[in-house]
Every structure is written in C-alpha cells, then in structure tokens.
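Researcher: Let's do a round of design. I'm pasting the structure tokens now; please hold your answer until I've finished.
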C-alpha cells in the first residue's frame, strides 16, 4: 500500500498549477466538507425531545449561570460539581442567539421545546468547529486520506451524533479530550512544539471545566509526552545521543524532554480553569469542594436510581458492560474497520522499517489506541456505568477503524485494480454510514447495531430510555378525546409535560391526584422502580405502545375508573367489570359500572341490570348500551380503555326500604344471546338467567 511520505520530493514545475489547486482543495474545501458533515446531522431538528438531564438540570443551570455572570454574582456560578462550566457558557451563547433572533423579529418567542433547541445550538456549533479542528490536527499525524475518513466517521457516528445534539456534557468532554490529546501528539513531533503545548493545555483546562473524568487526561497526556516526545526538533535517537553525552539513560533523557513540557500543559490548564470559572475568583474553596464532592460522592458510587444489564438489575454491571455496550453502539462500517486492523498491522510491518512517515503514523495510532484502552479501564473501575461515559474514547476508536478501512481498501486496490475504481469502496462505505445515520434521525440514541439484533435485543440487555419517545407519547395523548378529563402520571414528568395540555405528575402521586392516563417508561420498568404502583398501572392492557427502531420505549395506560364495590367479573374474555358505585336519589337508583376493556369487542352489546328483593322478585330492570351516549358502542371500545357511565334505574313507587340484590350481564340485541361470564361471581341463574354477574346487595330507602 502507498503511503505519502514527508520526505517525498516536491512536484515538477509542470505540475505546479495542479498541485496548487489540490492544495487549496485540501486546505479549504475538505475542512468545510468535514464541518458541514458534522454540523448538519447535529443541528437539523433540534426541537425533538427532552432528555432527563436537560429537563431536570441543564436548562435551568444554563439560565441561572448566564444570569449570575450578567449580574456579577461570581460565587453563584457554582451550580454543580461536574462543573459543566463550558456547557453553560455555550448554552448561554445559544440563549443570546435566541434573544437576538426574537428581538430582531427573526423568530417568534419559542415554547419550552424551541427554547431548548436554541440552548442546544451553542454546543452544536462548538461540536462542528471542534470536529473540524480535530480533522486538521489529525492530518498532521496521519495520511490526509486516513484523516479525512476518520473525521467523516466522527461526523456520522450515531453514538457521537446522538450526544452531540444535546445540552449535555459528554459530547463536549469528548471533543475537548480528543483535541487536547491530538495537540499533544502534534507537539511531540513538531519542530516548534510550544504553540501546540499551549493549545493542549488550554484544551485540557476546558475539559476539566466540563466534567470531572477529564482528570484522566492528566496522566494520559504525561505518558504520551514521555513515550513520544521529541519526534520533531529532536528525534528519539538524537535524544538518546544527547542523553549519552550527558551520561543520561534513555529513560532520563525522555524525562528531561517531557517533564518541562508537561508542567507547561498543567500550568496552562490551571490558568484556563481559573480564568473561565468565575466562582474561582470569589469562592475558590467552595468551588473546589463542589468539584471534588461530585467526583467522590456521585462518580464514586453506583447509580442511585438503579442499573440494568444482561436482563438483570445490578448496581454495578461489571467489566463486561463497556465492551458489550461499545459493540452495540458501533455501526457495521465502524466494526468492519476495526475487524480489518490486523491487516493494517501487517501492512505496517512490511513498510515500517522503510518509511519514517509510516512509523510516525503508526506511533500516533498506537497512542490513540492506548488512550482509548486507558479511558475504558479507568471507567470500568468505577461502579457507576453508562455507555456515554466512554464517549471520549470514541474518536480514537473510530480513527483506528478508519485505519482498518484504509488498509482493506489498499489490499483491494493491489489485487483487484480493475474492479476497484479509485476511492469507490471507501465512498460506498461512508454512504452506508450516512444512510444509517439518516435512518435513525432524530432518535440517534436508539441506535444499536443491527448485526447484534438492534434495538429489540438491546432492550433486553441495557438500561434504555433518557426521555426519547416522550414526544411521541405526548402526540398520541393529545389526540385522545378525553385528554382533559384528568391528569397524567409518568416517571419523568418534565420530559412529557411540554407535549401535553394537562398536568403531568410523578407516578407515586397515583392516589393523590385525579389521573386519567399513566405512562410506563422502559427505563423505570427495567430498574424495577415502584413495583406496586406499576403493578396497578399495568393491570390492564396498554392503550398504545411507543416503539422506536424496535425498542418499546413507553406504554400508555388508561387508569381504572373509581368504584366503591369491587366485583372482578369478566365477560367473553374481552370486558372486565372491575366494580361499581351505586347511589339513590329519590325514586332513581344510579349504578356506575367500571369497565376495563381487555380485548376487542366484535359487536355492539346491550347491558341488562336487574334489581331483586329479598324474596327473589325482580322489582326493577334496565337494558341500555353500557357506553351510554358518552362512551359509544362497545364495538368501538379499544383494548385498554376504561369506561364508567352512570346508569339510572327507576324504582317503583312505595318500594319498602331494605336490602336488594343487583345482577348484571351483556347480550347481543339482535339474537338475545348473552356474552359468557368467564370469571367472577355468578348470580342465581333461576332468577337472573345464565351468564349474569352477581354485584352484591345494596340498601335502598323508600322513594
């Protein structure tokens, strides 16, 4: 396979114009293409759904941060120990863009979802810029074509895109850690390393301002400097020679080169943290205590809400979690590239000793691989595990995947020159990657590798559900004719509330509010949250299930209508009489059965209700459709619907006070054939006939 060496001669004079045009293309157009490839899938359709952390935390934190900075309340910029400062600065940028657009009448004042989209816009723009910068840095470390393929994989990987659209920390931490590592690698080979060292330090400081796990970068950068330092102005061989003159071992020579530069990076990182976190100007002790407390108190414990892995609830999923989660998050193209890495290693072995450019590329890729492994191991050591916690290693992993793809492409070109035209195979694979991304828009979080069973298999293995799908829950509920008849219960009320016109309460309020519908969200069911409450909610069948890419994110239930006397009768396996309420007003007895529709009802049925005295005489009767005028005929009842229509029965004049027995059943009005009573208490067939349910006795007064 052909590698472009930095030692190759310049083009001939006759090729100058073509070379100049190609250089402009490389310098201007390719970065633009990479930036657009990163920006478009991240910024299109940002008003989609709320994730839990956005709804509960980052929207309000961003607004409070911007207000505190604007009013000079520096200590009030301590809003979380993460500390999330970079995210809140960028979210604040989106907030200012929103305010400017509204002030200039370019946009109408947004609703809560539109407001979130504006806040997301700041981080999204930063992601696109960071990915473009990452591509330009990577070009200094590997072949331009390899850098381009790697950058396009970064731009289109569903795992990166999913988090790069959110007002959240992990994608931003990924950008900053990757850029800091790449700048460090460039510094290791640059003739003038100091600008790159300063950049690496500033980027490391920004990562530290984003989230505590950025501390992993400190040893990673130091080890990188020690292992690869001096490849530019002073090669490792020259460093060893210089060390020999000073009677230093190669180890000491490396230390002599790397330690001063590492201290520069640390100093710049510390200065960046101090300059960009106003809390450190006013309340440094409290800010640092918050930072450390978050790492120890939150990151150092298992997920407080519970975890789910391999079909079981487990506080710490263990060492298999990240390898399996990573495999499920890889696309077929990305996985193919990693599978072809041995081929890349074989090609390196053939040409490494002959081409210094290959050796430098190999060293950079090994460093990226070592960083990915190091990050994964540190994350595995902690009990709290989410797949997004290994997002910072994803660009490094995708770069290795790109190396494998390039190796496979080179192998094909060498053996099938007539069949492999130019870069067609790579272009086809990147088109497949882009097609996968488009198919999952905007629910990139629901991407799981189809090679491993996709979403249906993943929901049996991993904790799934961060608020995605609640927009579809809301859209379905808004179409219900009785949506205004009560409140809604949900595990994550703020993620659903913007999509429905009635209040949404936490499921634990089931006995405290008049609720009409309840949402059973997959994540809550996997964690085994509030099993008694969900047992009550899910006693019926779901009215609707929100399924996205094979994942059953949410089931919507209608809650049983209130009743005073339980019955538990079932007719034809389709209609369950949960109970009833009864009340007398003068000469009328009103009975309100509470029906649970368990399955489809093929025909329009009629309800009969008999009232018997103590001697077994029928003293009153009513035959009406069970839905009355409000609930419609039974053939239109949807499985899962709950109905309770009051049925007034006229009592005979002069009826003596006392206890009376109620019996109820259903029949087809055309044939008078009764619907079989398949469960529950039976009334005396000699009095009420076959398939009549016994409701019990009530006390009546004289009309």
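Researcher: That's everything. Go ahead.
Model: Designed sequence:
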């Amino acid at each position: 396979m052909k590698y472009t060496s930095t030692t190759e001669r310049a083009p001939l004079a006759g090729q100058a114009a073509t070379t100049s045009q190609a250089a402009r293309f490389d310098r201007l157009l390719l970065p633009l293409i990479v930036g657009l490839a990163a920006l478009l899938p991240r910024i299109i359709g940002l008003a989609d759904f709320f994730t839990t952390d956005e709804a509960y935390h980052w929207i309000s934190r961003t607004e409070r941060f911007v207000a505190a900075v604007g009013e000079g309340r520096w200590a009030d910029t301590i809003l979380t120990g993460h500390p999330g400062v970079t995210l809140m600065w960028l979210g604040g940028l989106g907030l200012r863009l929103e305010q400017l657009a509204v002030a200039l009448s370019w946009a109408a004042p947004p609703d809560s979802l539109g407001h979130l989209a504006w806040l997301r816009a700041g981080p999204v723009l930063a992601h696109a810029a960071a990915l473009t910068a990452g591509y330009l840095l990577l070009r200094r470390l590997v072949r331009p074509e390899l850098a381009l393929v790697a950058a396009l994989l970064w731009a289109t990987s569903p795992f990166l895109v999913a988090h790069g659209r959110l007002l959240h920390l992990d994608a931003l931490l990924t950008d900053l850690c990757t850029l800091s590592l790449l700048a460090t690698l460039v510094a290791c080979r640059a003739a003038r390393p100091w600008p790159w060292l300063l950049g690496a330090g500033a980027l490391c400081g920004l990562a530290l301002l984003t989230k505590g796990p950025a501390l992993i970068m400190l040893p990673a950068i130091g080890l990188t400097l020690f292992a690869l330092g001096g490849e530019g102005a002073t090669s490792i061989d020259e460093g060893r020679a210089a060390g020999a003159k000073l009677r230093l071992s190669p180890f000491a020579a490396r230390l002599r080169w790397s330690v001063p530069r590492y201290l520069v990076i640390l100093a710049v990182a510390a200065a960046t943290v101090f300059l960009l976190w106003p809390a450190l100007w006013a309340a440094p002790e409290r800010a640092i205590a918050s930072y450390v407390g978050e790492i120890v108190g939150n990151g150092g414990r298992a997920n407080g809400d519970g975890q789910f892995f391999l079909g079981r609830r487990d506080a710490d999923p263990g060492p298999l979690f990240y390898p399996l989660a990573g495999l499920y998050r890889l696309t077929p193209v990305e996985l193919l590239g990693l599978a072809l890495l041995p081929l890349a290693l074989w090609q390196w072995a053939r040409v490494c000793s002959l081409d210094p450019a290959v050796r430098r590329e190999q060293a950079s890729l090994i460093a990226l691989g070592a960083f990915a492994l190091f990050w994964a191991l540190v994350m595995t050591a902690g009990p709290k595990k989410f797949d997004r916690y290994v997002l910072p290693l994803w660009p490094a992993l995708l770069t290795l995947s790109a190396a494998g793809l390039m190796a496979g492409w080179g192998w094909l070109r060498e053996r099938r020159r007539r069949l492999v035209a130019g870069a067609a195979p790579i272009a086809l694979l990147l088109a497949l990657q882009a097609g996968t991304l488009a198919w999952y828009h905007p629910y990139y979080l629901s991407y799981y590798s189809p090679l491993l069973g996709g979403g249906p298999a993943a929901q049996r293995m991993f904790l799934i559900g961060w608020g995605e799908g609640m927009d579809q829950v809301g859209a379905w509920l808004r179409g219900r004719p009785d949506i205004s008849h009560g409140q809604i219960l949900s595990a994550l009320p703020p993620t659903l509330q913007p999509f429905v016109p009635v209040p949404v309460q936490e499921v634990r309020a089931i006995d405290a509010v008049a609720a009409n519908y309840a949402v059973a969200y997959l994540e809550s069911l996997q964690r085994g949250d509030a099993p008694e409450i969900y047992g009550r909610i899910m006693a019926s069948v779901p009215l609707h299930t929100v399924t996205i890419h094979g994942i059953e994110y949410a089931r919507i239930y209608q809650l049983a209508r209130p009743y005073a006397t339980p019955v538990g009768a079932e007719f034809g396996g389709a209609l369950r009489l949960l109970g009833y309420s009864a009340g007398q007003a003068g000469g009328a007895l009103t009975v309100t059965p509470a029906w649970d529709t368990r399955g489809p009802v093929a025909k329009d049925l009629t309800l009969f209700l008999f009232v018997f005295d103590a001697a077994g005489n029928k003293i009153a009767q009513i035959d009406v459709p069970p839905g009355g005028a409000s609930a419609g005929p039974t053939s239109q009842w949807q499985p899962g619907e709950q109905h309770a229509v009051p049925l007034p029965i006229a009592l005979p004049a002069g009826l003596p006070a006392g206890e009376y027995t109620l019996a109820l059943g259903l029949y087809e009005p055309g044939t008078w054939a009764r619907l079989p009573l398949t469960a529950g208490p039976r009334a005396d067939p000699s009095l009420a006939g076959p398939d009549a349910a016994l409701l019990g006795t009530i006390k009546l007064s004289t009309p």
